[in-house]
Amino acid sequence: MSLDEIPNQIKVSLGRRGFDPINPKQCSKCGNPNQSRLKLLEKIEQDKVTHEKGEKRTIDYKIQCLNCQNIFYIRLQHLIHYQDDEEKRVTTKVNILDENKNDLGWLGNY
User: In which band, very low, low, confident or very high, does the pLDDT at 89 lie, cut at 50, 70 and 90?
Assistant: First the structure.
């Protein structure tokens, strides 16, 4: 269990202008991007949800910023769509949540 499980770069939609890369590993309160000042407290894997065309796996990473003591979550939702018996397409949505797990918004995809 480490912050290395979270991608270093995700793509944020800029509307008609394409996508912009950002680093999701930063404090949601003070903006601290220094990974040595972010502490991973817990990794929470939720039950897998399966449907006829694929599945969804959700993982929440509980993180504390050592600069401002803010606790927040980074949520990765892996959406797996089966196209044929063997082929699959994976999209991962990245959201930021506050200490009470209130969704603060969608950051982007990877």
Answer: confident
Q: What is the pTM of this model?
A: 0.86
Q: Tell me if 6 sits within 8 A of 96, measured CB to CB.
A: no
Longest Cα separation, the chain: 49
Q: What would the DSSP string read from start to end of 23-91? A: ---S-TTT----GGGEEEEEEEEPPPEEETTEEEEEEEEEEEETTT--EEEEEEEEEEEESSSS-EEEE
Q: Which range is least confidently modeled, 4-13, 50-59, 90-99? A: 4-13
Structure tokens at 99: 């200490």
Structure tokens given for 72 = 């927040």
